Amino acid sequence: MSLLKSNSVQIGQSATATQNFTLSVPSSPDGTIKLARGNSGATTADVLTVNASGAITGATITGATITSSTVNGGTITSATAQATTSGTAIDFTGIPSWVKRVTVMFNRTSLSGTDHYLVQIGSGSLTTSGYSSHAGYVVSDTDAGSVGSTSGFVVWGGFASQVTSANVSICLADSSSYIYTSSHSGLDAAGGAFKAGGGAVTLTGLLDRVRITRTGTNTFDASAGSINIMYEG
């Protein structure tokens, strides 16, 4: 059995270059491969490209354009968890433009005082105003509370002794006007309080970053807490 190795293979022998196809990798292979119309070494138009992560761009199938958003739509990507043992803000940046939903995961986090958490999002830069957001907690009929914020999607913190475990879901509700909505539920893992809330905000473009911070001057102080995000198209 023989093995043929080549960086470029032409498919077709037509005298009209646009009726031939060329399958090729770069002269210095980097994990990508390209199918183009035309002769090897003299292609006339790219048909599709598969990058090193498996994302396909440029292809059409029966009139439907395949972009990175549709190809990556079935993939859930998890970032790297960041410890919440100190500091005042945690940032996640470089979120791809095809993302339609981001989930922020609070894992046994705590603040040093009575501040609440703020989840802020942005496109190019953080949006720190214009939110319509409320959150609250319930322990019993006589032990409940709520808080609102225009500075971010607020999540109830409230007491230094509370340890928060919760998922905040942020969704692209209107792609033409960049409206994002949020909802969350969770609990105080130390005291049993149920937490929930939601909100909305309009960005200047597609979301590409998330910050988790607080409403005042508290610091993160959970001895073993962390925050992470995952996103999907």
Your description of this structure?
The structure is a single chain. The protein has 233 residues and is mostly beta strands. The two termini are 43 Å apart. The strands form four sheets. Strands 8, 9, 11, 13, 14, 16, 17, 18 and 20 form a nine-stranded antiparallel β-sheet that branches. The protein has a five-stranded antiparallel β-sheet with strand order 1-2-3-4-5, with no helix packed on it. The protein has a four-stranded antiparallel β-sheet with strand order 10-19-12-15, with no helix packed on it. A hairpin with a 5-residue loop joins strand 17 (179-188) and strand 18. Helix content is 2%, strand content 51%. The chain has one helix and 20 strands.
Total tally of structural domains: 2
Q: Which shape, going by the Cα principal axes?
A: elongated
The oligomeric state is: single chain
β content, as a range? over 45%
Largest sheet: 9 strands, antiparallel
Q: Look at the structure and give the mean pLDDT.
A: 90
Helical fraction equals under 10%
CATH top level class name of the largest domain: Mainly Beta
CATH fold annotation of the largest domain: Jelly Rolls
Please name the CATH architecture of the largest domain: Sandwich
Work out the radius of gyration: 24 Å
Q: Termini distance?
A: 43 Å
The number of helical elements comes to: 1
Q: List unreliable stretches of 5+ residues.
A: none
Number of strands: 20
Q: SS-based structural class?
A: mainly beta
Helix-strand pattern, N to C? Answer: EEEEEEEHEEEEEEEEEEEEE
